[in-house]
TrEMBL record:
Protein name as annotated: Tyrosinase copper-binding domain-containing protein
Organism placement in taxonomy: Eukaryota, Fungi, Dikarya, Basidiomycota, Wallemiomycotina
Top-level taxon of origin: Eukaryota
Organism: Wallemia hederae
Tagged with keyword Metal-binding: yes
Pfam families, per the entry: Tyrosinase
Length: 268
C-alpha cells in the first residue's frame, strides 16, 4: 500500500532540495528466467504460491480468494485514464514487492518471448516440474471441450481461481499461436518475430511506440499483424487472453513474466 502522506512529504522535500540530478544507488537488474538456477526458480514460484495462500486485503472480502487475486481485481478495473506502459510498470513493481513479502529475494525475472519466436511451444518457459516450472500450455482436446485446457502440471497445476468467476487456470497455446489469419506465417508470430521487433525499435515517438507494442486484439486492430504484447496474450489464450469483458489476465502467473519483458523492451 502506498502511504500517500509519506509520498506527498517526499515530494515536498524533493521540491525544496537543490536541483541536483537524482541518483539511484540501488538499481535492481531483472534477469531472464532461463538464467535462474533451480533453487531460484523454486523460491520464485514458492513466493507466488504464498501470495495465492495469503488472505485478500479486499474490504468486502467476498470477491477475491487471495492476495494474488487482489492484483487481478486491481487490473480488472484500471479505469480508462491510465497510461498503459507506466501503469503496468507500476503494477509489476507492486507485485514484485508482494513477492518479496513472501520471501523472494531476487529481482523480478522476465520471459524473453521474442527469443522463442520461431516456435513458442518449444520455449523453456513450459516446464511441467511442480517445483521449478510454470506448467505447460494446455492442449485443446476436441473430445473433451470442457476444461480441456486446464493446466494440470507445474507449480500451478489445477489452480482454482475465484475472481472474476470460479474456474481453473487455463492456457491453449498450440491452437491460437499457430492460427494463420492469412499470412505469411501465423498471425501471432507476425507480432513477435524479429522483423516486427526491429520495426518497433525504430519508432520515434513514445505514443506510436506504445500503441505498436501494446496492440489490441485483432478485432480492434486494423493492422494485418498484432503488437507483440497483444500477440503473446492471444497466443497463450485461456486466462491470458480473457474474454473481452474481463481484464483478468493476471490470473496466469505468466502475465507478470510477460509484462516484465514488455517493460524491458520499453526500457531498451
Ligand atoms: Cu498485458
Amino acid at each position: 500500500m502506498v502511504n500517500l502522506a509519506l509520498f506527498s512529504a517526499a515530494l515536498a522535500v524533493g521540491a525544496l532540495a537543490s536541483p541536483a540530478k537524482p541518483k539511484c544507488d540501488n538499481i535492481g537488474v531483472r534477469r531472464n528466467w532461463n538464467s535462474l538456477n533451480g533453487d531460484e526458480k523454486a523460491s520464485f514460484l514458492g513466493a507466488i504460491q504464498c501470495m495465492m495462500q495469503k488472505p485478500s486485503l479486499s474490504p468486502n472480502g467476498v470477491q477475491q480468494a487471495s492476495r494474488f487475486e487482489d492484483f487481478v481485481w486491481t487490473h480488472q478495473y484500471p479505469g480508462y485514464a491510465i497510461h498503459w506502459l507506466p501503469w503496468h510498470r507500476w503494477f509489476v513493481k507492486a507485485y514484485h514487492a508482494e513477492l518479496q513479502e513472501c520471501g523472494w529475494e531476487g529481482e523480478m525475472p522476465y520471459w524473453a518471448w521474442e527469443q522463442d519466436w520461431q516456435d513458442l511451444s518449444a520455449s523453456n518457459i513450459w516446464n511441467a516440474d511442480p517445483e521449478i516450472g510454470f506448467g505447460t500450455y494446455g492442449n485443446f482436446d476436441y473430445n473433451n471441450v470442457y476444461n480441456s485446457t486446464t493446466i494440470t502440471d507445474g507449480a500451478f497445476a489445477n489452480h482454482q481461481i475465484q475472481f472474476p468467476f470460479p474456474h481453473m487456470l487455463t492456457r491453449n497455446l498450440p491452437m491460437t499461436a499457430n492460427y494463420p489469419w492469412t499470412g505469411p506465417g501465423p498471425y501471432c508470430q507476425r507480432g513477435y518475430n524479429p522483423e516486427n521487433m526491429k520495426n518497433l525499435s525504430s519508432i520515434a515517438t513514445y505514443k506510436d511506440f506504445s500503441v505498436a507494442l501494446e496492440s489490441p486484439d485483432p478485432i480492434h486492430n486494423p493492422n494485418p499483424f498484432p503488437g507483440p504484447h497483444g500477440a503473446i496474450h492471444l497466443a497463450l489464450w485461456g486466462d491470458m487472453r480473457t474474454d473481452g469483458t474481463n481484464n483478468s489476465s493476471p490470473n496466469d502467473p505468466l502475465f507478470y513474466m510477460h509484462h516484465s519483458n514488455v517493460d524491458r523492451i520499453w526500457a531498451s
